[in-house]
Write a structure and sequence with these properties.
Blueprint lengths: L2 H19 L11 H25 L3 H32 L1
Amino acid sequence: MGKGTRSLIYLGLSLGMLLFAVPRLDLGGGWSLPAVFGMVWCAFALLLVAAHLHELLGVEEETKRELLKVKRMKRWQLEQAVRGRRKMLQVKK
């Protein structure tokens, strides 16, 4: 199962859970303990939905590609530095 498929399934489950639970939560009771619990629960559920949407939309793909380019360049520079030192050590002998 691919990453996108898994996120899509979890997004559907999260939305279903939210739609099932919101009518049953006591959200209009002011600052009572059940109302605060309901608000916090809804906030976490919405955060979960947002995380799966973020993954599905691929917002970080460009950032991941740029970081990969930077890592490759650093690795190449380190390799060039090590090769340069070897050449210098061989010449000195």
